[in-house]
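Support reply, case 0932

Customer input (verbatim):
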Amino acid sequence: MKTAITISTKGAEYRLPLFRLMTKILVEYEKGTDSMYYPMLNSLPRQFYNGVSMTKVCFRCLPPYAGWLTQNERINCSHFTNALRQGYVPLSQETIYNKQVTQWAYNCALTRFHEIYSPQRAKLIGPMADMINHAAVPNCEIQVDGNGNMNVVSLYDIQPNEPLSISYGEPRNPTP
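Our regenerated output:
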């Protein structure tokens, strides 16, 4: 009898929306050129510079708090990969045992999501949202309607040739 390792047993149930997004990316990845998301997935970075991609030597070079944050991301990625390997997700063995592919999907989900603030805390990827710059004082925001459509709404009059900007998150937390 198989013992299920669930996300909640690892204390990361609040990360379930991120797990779902990672799984969606992997499902679409397996479809290859047959996926309607192929052009977007193909445009995503293949290399990331975060905790999931670091070596043990890298972790030792970081200040303690930054090291702790980045190691947590590596641990979360490991928990997600273990959950995929339990066989409850319709993915091929080739995909779920490919460390490079599962880390790529996790990093894409982690670095590209936009959260819908609802009871489910759903996370979505909007390819055009990747084109918007970061600013401490943004000039627009991304809103998601009830159908999952992302809309960019200006916060004030934006001048011609002024780049659109949103906040990528809390600047004192380097992980996101």
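We compared this against your earlier run and they match. Two observations from our side: The longest strand covers residues 140-144. The longest helix spans residues 64-84. Please reopen the case if you see a mismatch on your end.
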